[in-house]
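SEQUENCE-TO-STRUCTURE ENTRY
===========================

Subject: a protein chain together with a token-level encoding of how that chain folds.

Sequence line: the amino acid chain in single-letter code, read from start to end.

Question of interest: how does this chain fold, as expressed in backbone structure tokens?
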Amino acid sequence: MCVPSRNRQIYFQETIRALIASPRDDLEFVFVDNSDDPTIMNAFMGEVCNDRRVRYLPSASHTLSMVDNWERTVAATSGRWVSIIGDDDFVDPEVAGLIARIEARVPDCDAVAWNRLTFHWPGAKPHEMNTAVPTGCRIVEIARDELIRKTFGWQDAGRVPTFMFSVYHAAVRRELLEKNKPLFGNRYFEHPVVDQDSAFKVILTARRFIFSERPFSILGACPGSNSASEGRVEEHDLRHAEFMADLGRAVESETIDPDFPFPQGCGTTAAVGVSQNWFRKTYGIKLDGWEENFVRSCALDCASASTERDFQIMRQRYEACIRAWKGGRFLKAFSPTFEVADAGKTPFRGVTPLLIHIGERLAGALTPAELYEAASGMMTPPDEIAINF
């Protein structure tokens, strides 16, 4: 399923073409337009909707917030498993076969996740980026306690913690989504950061969690994506302002807490912290010892800055928040560093023990689907992946 945002129909159309090229007949595709010019996608989908697997939800009378758009998307689905990707992403339809095999072996599994590759559409970055293809293809079970430590406790986190088990670039059993709905606000999604909202609920309520080392989807970033603006303060602030406008309500006044004084627009790490803070307080989640880990992630967010000027702005923003938080007791864990990027240095491409590092334009790829096809030659075919349970 794809949930496009406004003015990005070209990426959405490429994603649709790639997905419906699949010969699998056990799939349901729900394509959802949420643009400010519905005539473009309406005309395109007129050529696609003769595929019996396809259901199309056109734009509403006005552009919906992401949380409302995702809500109507899941409500329109009917399959046993649900997975959402964005308009500039890609997911391999063959993951449906793997999920069916996992379900046969682990009938009480409620959530399946997998590794993801990355792809920056032309114009999203000034130069070609790398992506890393895992060399492993194991199917493993992950314990809930470990997920809680990593997600809510920020254990071993980078800029963000682990929250891979959600309806976004992963798959959740429909029965769980319907079971959770009355437990959490009588909605599928409540918080505006929808993927994290989904992950928090799935991690707390799913019975078993199965993870595939082999990637099955690609996180795309087009020039208008939030991820494309990471590390560039002015662009990040612009994307955040657009997010607030699309939301249509003052999320900041609803989520900033005197006990957690981190504005959502402060940075990527802060945005996750805000959504977690909302979830913990709303549903009474108690967990000790996560604060220093969170502050270390804030430092890593600063280190992602594109320029020293961006770094200093991000550092000052985070430092002010950390100093005001619980008497500044966690300030000692905040030690961000900035390294000047060497523009002339060729990024490493090759094999390390666990990863194959490749350029995102491998074999001339211009879309996530084309990169995935090229990278698939380095990965185990889905039907040859062993499930040893």
Notes: The radius of gyration is 21 Å.
